[in-house]
Amino acid sequence: MNSLITLKPGCMNKQINTPAAKRIAVVAGNNKRKDLVEWSYFNNDILNQHRLTAIDETADVLEGTLNGPVNRLFTRDTGGYQQLATLIENGKIDILFFFADPSMNNDKDTDLKKVLLVAAKKNIMVACNEATTELVMTSVLQRKDHPARLRSYPGFLKQTVSFINQLALKHSAAAM
Q: Which CATH number covers residue 127?
């Protein structure tokens, strides 16, 4: 597999060659592991039809519940978020499922913020809560003819970046 990203040694690559297969990244905070296990087990049939990428710890959970391979990135502490941002920047991810962990420390916020900003810039689908995740699972991933990318709306990126910056400032102020 040619890639601009060096994957962690021993990673397994799921090769799905159907045009409908989406390239899905999954990010989950430590406190969201139980939710991730339940979600991936419940959606096993759908998820196994797509190519999954996850940071090391999340890949462990997904491989266990889906009983299949996941493209494995480094841990979040050793550059996993940077790898994910680069994959998104290079058009290698179609959808990002983000199981938010509000207790995440500020050191990781910067890298995660970059992932979300690149996802907004590249106009990929980002599901950050249960309602959006369910909508993407049922309306996009189950339909074989639906494109994973939507058309761009002027001003939306600027509004999204502003919102993410406000959240970061509010989170930083609350931590003080």
A: 3.40.50.1380
